[in-house]
Structures are given as structure tokens and as C-alpha cells.
């Protein structure tokens, strides 16, 4: 089976007076795995359900390849979907659950049995096919749901928080398995998640959403290196980026009485300055006091009090400063992230 | 055998005290149906199989008991089936679909339920006459089912509201239409609701008296409740036979409970979450 490209044009969804999704344009390549990342209520699931055909868009168009599909019933779109709750039919066995989409297509019994068993083997649930969903583990339910989505060899695979009901250990394992499987069969996939590490680890490209608006659509690396908005900057990266609101005064950024040299000259005006804790160090010029040191294992996360505000810095565990000591925040000016008053990245 | 703790003994005494009058009534029914004469709860004369002679021959000008029994079975069966079917479909629509006037309709259903059946009976009489359904079993079935529907719709709506949307979305994505989804996914998952509503509807229709009594005249459409009532209305009441008919009337309900209690008590357990 081969994936198909998915294109979303000026897609909008209103629920009564509530705007769930402002205007969205998105281009997903064939065979690509894309993650929709954002906090709850940001519009990512709404978008997914419109692509699935459950919600009818208020305006806009959805294309699979060259075909416009936004007017089609879900069953005519050829999509497979995995839900957060798995949504397995409790009154059917695992076999019948996986066979369900094929039965609806009136597939002959022999072919159906072969397909179901093949998919079940692929996902390692061949030995629980005769049990009911309530009688198998959470991980097996999740695989059964994935098998049901994949068995009909869909053009597009939609995953709505598929891992968030799993234990932490199984979740890491399932993350890798889903990604490996997706690359193996090459199905175009969309993963909805609020977990940034999941999105960054699994997806070719990540679309970051906030309050019904797309913030950035980029590769995980790009997202980390060059966040397009203050929201994307604060949402992606762990520990989160230090962000200060203040004023640019030519070659300096002024916030809360702090003066931070930029190493370049910018037009004056209000804006935001960001620096990732792992890009900062304690051998600089901005004076502060250590108020908290948290161990991260090999490294330590130091919180500095800076004249009314705070900043976090990652240092080697070996050189961790004493609590209460004086420290001087430093940074490479090239690692600074600059944003305008509206929170949009200033390209330098 | 361990004795119950003192607190429980008091509780048991209270329960027995409260249940005693009902138990005595059932005991009287059993004894009177079996023996010729009963003083209080003490049989004073021998067995009286002639109390049960209604099984063999028509009593007075009444139709044979078999007619009343079959009519009651049809009445209760059809009313319960219709009620479950219509209430489920209406409740699903109210719970899941958005259509103009939905909340208005929901309020109306509740208001309809507030009317006592008896207060509507004159109007119902005229309507059935107009439709040519007066004095027919089907007429009373329609009336009874309609009067019980509002409660059924609200009950079933509660069950449908508790279903996860995910399950239905999954079925739609898997390739189902709304209509097959209702029959194959939604209905099986509200089985406890169907059983509960079906049981209540069956019992309520089986015990219904006022509606058949008012809307049916001819003997061929009599139900068991009407048969029993005519025995009481005689100048000389044969209490032995009243009791025997009463017992006979109760047998199908008891049988239903004995055969079906496993299903009635077993709330369907299914897991959607891990």
C-alpha cells in the first residue's frame, strides 16, 4: 500500500459562535508522518476529525491527492483511525474487531481471514484474536485498534492520541513500533498529540497549534532551532525556553531593569527575547543569584534570580554552583531568539 | 450458625414488619386459591380443585380464560416491543443528532409524561372511535404504548448519552452508515437499558387495567385484568376462584422473573478503555 498526499486549503470550523479552527492551510506529502501538536482545545483534534469526515468543515477544502474529499462520507474516504480510547467494540472479539471494516466491504471469508491474521501477526496480537477487548491488556487493545485501522490498507492513517492511555514504559516501545510500521508500509499518517517528545520523536514534520491557529509547520529540528512564534518557542523544548517581554533599544534588549546586549543592531520597539537553557552558561556578564539547582542526571538545571525576573540554565553536574552564590549569565548572541511585539520571529 | 450483629437484628425486624402485610396478601392468595374456605390465613376445609374450574369451562357469560390469556400476552408483548423499539430510535436521535427544535421536543416529551392517563381517557375514547379502533386490541396497544413512550425515551436517552462518541466515530470511519451503526453498534451497547425498559414495559402492560376496561367492550378482546375484575363485580363473589385466577394471572410474570433474572441482574460489562 502506498500513501497519498493530503492538502488542506483555508479550512475553518465554527461550533456555533466558538471558533475551533481559524483558517488553516497545510500540505502533507505522500508517505509522510505529520504530528499535530498543541495543548487541549487548540484545534488539532477538530482538524483531524474534519480530515476523517466526522466533522463537516464550516469552510475550506480537503484534498487526498487530486481528489476533493471534504463532501464525502467517512466510509468513502478510505482512512483508518485509532482513537485515544481505542473505541474497540466491546461485544466483539479482537478478531471480529479487526475484521469489522473488511466485513463492511463484503470481503470473501477466506481472504478476510488471511488479511486479519496477517495484520494481527504484524502487530503481535495473533494469540489473542479470540478474546474480547476487555480480556486483553491495554497495550494489546492499542495494537488491536491499530490493526483495525490498518487492515483495510487505508490511504491515510489518523492517530488521535493513540499512546496516552498506555503506561510510560509501553508507550516508549509503542512509539517506536508505530513509527517503524508506518515507514515500512509507507502510509501517510497524521498523529495528534499534546506530548512534544512524542511529536518530535515520531513525526517527519510537526504542526504546532494554539487556540485554533497554526503556529508553525516544520521538521522537529527546525522547530527547535528556529521557532516561528513565542508559543512554538515555549511549547517545544525541554526544559522550556527562557522568554522575556521587554523593549529593543538598538543594540540592547531591556526588561525588568536588565540590559542584555544583542551583539547586533535591531530597530527599536517592544518585543520578546528567548534563550534556551542549554544555550546559556554561567560565565557571562549579566549578574544574578542561584536560587534553585535541580539535577537532571548528567547535567543540572540552575534557576537564576535576575533583578526581578528568572532564567534557567543547564550546566554540567560537575560544575554545579552552590545555592545562593553569585553567578553571571552568559550566552552566544547567535543563540538568541528574537520576537516582535506580536510574538513572531524576527529573522536576522 | 453465627448470629447477626444486634444492629442488623433491628434492621431485619423492621424489614420483616414492613413486608408482612404484602406477604400476608400473597399467602392469602395462595391459600384461598387452594382450599375451599379460609378463616384469616387458616384453611378450615379441604382442597378445592373446583376453584380452578375456569381452566376447563367458560364461567358465566365470559369468554374462555385462554382468550383473555392470549390477549394479555399479545397486549403486553406488543406494547413492550413497540415501546423499546420506538423509544430507542427516538432517544438515539435526541442524544446524537442535532436537528431544529431538539430541545423544544425534549421538553415537550417531558410535559406529555406529566399527564395522568386517566385524565386523557375521554379524549382517547373519541379519537379511537374516529379511527375505528375502539373496542380493538390494537387500539389499546397504541394508546398504552404512546402513554408510556415519554418515560421510555428519557430512560433510553440517558443510556445513549453515556456511550462514547469514539466508538461511533470509529464505526463511521470503518465504513458504516448511521442506520447500520444504530443497529449494530449503538443498540448492542445499551442492552442493559433495553432489558430494563422492556421489563418495566412488559410488567406495566401486563398489569394494565383502566385502559382495556374503558376502551374494550366485547369479550373476544378481554384481557386477564378485565376477566379478574368481572369476577369481583358479581352479586355473589366466589373468592376461591378470584384467588385462583389471581394466581394464574401471576404465573407468567413469575416465570419471566425466574427464567430471566440472570439476564436482568447481569449488567453487560464491556471495556472500551485500557
Structure description:
The complex is a heterodimer of chains A (348) and B (274). With 348 residues, chain A is an alpha+beta fold. Chain A has eight helices and 19 strands. Chain A has helices spanning 44-52, 94-104, 109-123, 138-150, 168-185, 196-202, 220-225, 230-235, and strands at 6-15, 18-28, 33-37, 59-64, 67-68, 79-82, 156-160, 188-193, 205-210, 213-218, 242-248, 252-255, 258-261, 269-275, 280-295, 299-306, 309-316, 326-331, 337-340. In chain A, the strands form four sheets. A six-stranded mixed beta sheet of chain A has the order 6-7-8-3-9-10, with helices on both faces. A five-stranded antiparallel beta sheet of chain A has the order 13-12-11-14-19. A four-stranded antiparallel beta sheet of chain A has the order 2-1-4-5, with helices on one face. In chain A, strand 16 (299-306) and strand 17 form a beta hairpin. The mean pLDDT of chain A is 92. Helices cover 69% and strands 1% of the residues of chain B. Chain B is globular, with a radius of gyration of 23 Å. Chain B has a two-stranded antiparallel sheet with strand order 1-2. With 274 residues, chain B is an all-alpha fold. In chain B, strand 1 (38-39) and strand 2 (42-43) form a beta hairpin. The model of chain B is unreliable at 267-274 (pLDDT under 50).
Helix content of chain B: 55-70%
What is the rounded Rg of chain B? Answer: 23 Å
Number of helices of chain A: 8
Which oligomerization state do the chains in this entry correspond to? heterodimer
Query: Strand-and-helix sequence of chain B, N→C?
Result: HEEHHHHHHHHHH
What does the main sheet of chain A amount to?
6 strands, mixed
Whole-Å distance between the termini of chain A?
Answer: 44 Å
| Largest sheet, spatial ordering of strands of chain B | 1-2
Biggest sheet character of chain B: 2 strands, antiparallel
Based on CA inertia axes, which overall geometry of chain A fits? elongated
Strand/helix succession of chain A: EEEHEEEHHHEHEHEEHHEEEEEEEEE
Question: Biggest sheet of chain A: strands side by side, in what order?
Answer: 6-7-8-3-9-10
Q: Return residue spans of chain B where pLDDT drops below 50 for at least 5 consecutive residues.
A: 267-274
Mean pLDDT of chain B: 86
User: What does the radius of gyration of chain A come to?
Assistant: 24 Å
